[in-house]
Specification:
By secondary structure, this protein is of the alpha+beta class. The chain has one domain (6-233): Hotdog Thioesterase (Thiol Ester Dehydrase, Chain A). Helix content is 35%, strand content 23%. A six-stranded antiparallel beta sheet has the order 1-2-4-5-6-3, with helices on one face. It is globular, with a radius of gyration of 19 Å.
């Protein structure tokens, strides 16, 4: 159970993250269901071998479904989702659509993250969709998970920035279909620079570790958010 203080998090910030929580409204609940179905579909796609005829039939059904979605109202970008006020705040939208941690984004495992006593924690399970070496999580996926996790860990320092440097050490293979646990620390700050480090474990065994440098933009994330919002409004 996380004891993260949500009041510390600026929900307008793209790095805001919290435990997996109930969806903001019925729309996101339905979108999470679709995302879960797509995750299942992807998992069975890469692990099954139906006949060619069956696959063409399934593809036709999916193409029809994709067309139905394409003909529905489209919203491009998280700022556009948040702008109307009907889909939640920018932070809530990001919590759903983030490509690593978004509950409503089918490409996300998703990664769950929280903070306790100035230490960041995370967990996720990567299935066959994410295989690199045999029975192992692809190294690029491991790196992406660390990038997201270290970015969230910045909240301990209360002034998040963007990735400037990320170094990952792969100590041994990271197994598929196993709960991966992450632990991160805010090491130090130098001006606008945040130095973060973390480890990844599977069944108590360290499989990878990472250190990262994140730099706060001039004017802070708020200025970057405002600039992006103005750009969305001009589209």
């Amino acid at each position: 159970m996380s004891d993260i203080d949500i009041s510390r998090l600026d929900l307008a910030n793209p790095f805001a993250s919290e435990d997996i929580t109930p969806p903001f409204n019925a729309e996101w609940q339905a979108k999470r269901r679709v995302a879960d179905a797509l995750r299942q579909l992807t998992e069975v796609l890469v692990t099954s071998s139906p006949s060619v005829e069956q696959m063409h039939g399934i593809a036709a059904q999916l193409e029809q479904t994709a067309g139905e979605f394409q003909n529905a109202p489209r919203i491009f970008g998280r700022h556009a989702w948040a702008a109307s006020g009907e889909h939640g705040s920018f932070g809530q939208v990001s919590h759903e659509l983030n490509p690593l941690a978004g509950c409503a984004n089918p490409v996300a495992p998703p990664l769950n993250m929280w903070i306790e006593d100035e230490v960041a924690y995370g967990s996720c399970i990567c299935g066959w969709t994410y295989e690199g070496p045999p029975n192992s999580v692809h190294g690029g996926v491991v790196s992406s998970i660390f990038d997201q996790f270290l970015g969230m860990t910045q909240f301990i320092g209360k002034r998040p920035g963007m990735t400037a440097y990320l170094h990952v050490n792969y100590h041994q293979r990271t197994p598929l279909n196993t709960e991966l646990r992450l632990e991160g620390r805010y090491d130090r700050a130098e001006g606008r620079k945040n130095y973060i480090s973390a480890e990844m474990y599977a069944d108590g065994v360290r499989t990878a570790s990472a250190e990262g440098l994140f730099v706060q933009p001039r004017g802070g994330m708020e200025g970057l958010q405002a600039q992006a919002a103005r750009g969305s409004a001009g589209d």
